Amino acid sequence: MSNIVDDIKREFAKSENSLIKIILINTAVFLVLLLIKIIFTLSQSAQIYNWLLDQIQLSADRSAFLYKPWTLFTYFFAHEDIFHILFNMLFFYWFGKLVDEYLGAKRVVALYILGGIAGGLVFIVLYNVLPFFQAHLVDSGMLGASAAAFSVAVGASTLLPNYTFNLIFLGPIRIKFIAIFYIILSLAQTIGPNAGGNLAHLGGALIGYIFIKLLQNGTDLGKPIYAVMNGWSNLFRKKPAMQVTYREKQVYRSKSVYSSTTVTGSVETPDQTEIDNILDKISKSGYESLTKEEKQKLFRASQQK
């Protein structure tokens, strides 16, 4: 047990590991809810569990949402069904890995959160506007990361539409066709028993497409989320212990000495020679042979055109 806890701590200690962190958070919430459900069901206090679930699931009822606005965020980190969380996390991991490699970990977080929020808002608005759904307004409640996962999937498909996944029994399929298939499937199921969830899928898909298109034009919708992430990490970052040093003589050096040791955390815009070398590597070995830094440089160069 201690080894599992240590492994989880190591994963959360990594700075560029947002993809796995989101999966671990979803898994932890699922297991906690499952344990609470078992305890209160066996103690014949299921109403307590239902009350707790009501505090984290998103309701389409406007008055309920205004009373519990935090549910717009909590719903896409919670699942009740094991196959629901399994599919969502696999879907999220497959496509999120591409976004992580090409755009960095923080864009994965932005797509996930913005997709979840957009999906929730679409769910609320359409249930209150369309007469078809208004009859089920009071009983409507939504859990699950499907909208957030769809946002990441459509974002990856917009960024790399011709990238292929090797699917069992089907062989290599371009990811744009996978995304289109699930969008059409969700659209067709908006009149089914899980209408609210499928409406949320479409909201997440839309924000994923918009996010990447704006990013390619130089506008990053994720900046507010990055600011919150930086503030949160700085809040829990340990401050170095104060050290007192004594120096007998102050030595001054030219700026050139220090400039050679400057380290930046972001990928610099490459020159034409670097781009040509990257394109030559793609033509010889394929896109998959590029390193994470080369993929990010290629994307940075495309923004300068």
TrEMBL record:
Peptidase S54 rhomboid domain boundaries: 69-214
Protein's membrane topology: Multi-pass membrane protein
Taxonomy, superkingdom: Bacteria
Keyword set, alphabetical order: Membrane, Transmembrane, Transmembrane helix
One Gene Ontology MF term: serine-type endopeptidase activity
InterPro entries per record: DUF6576, Peptidase_S54_rhomboid_dom, Rhomboid-like_sf
Transmembrane segments: 19-40, 72-96, 108-130, 142-161, 173-192
DUF6576 domain span: 271-303
GO CC annotations on file: membrane
Cell compartments where the protein resides: Membrane
PANTHER family per UniProt: PEPTIDASE S54 RHOMBOID DOMAIN-CONTAINING PROTEIN, RHOMBOID-RELATED PROTEIN
Official protein name in the record: Rhomboid family intramembrane serine protease
Originating organism: Dyadobacter helix
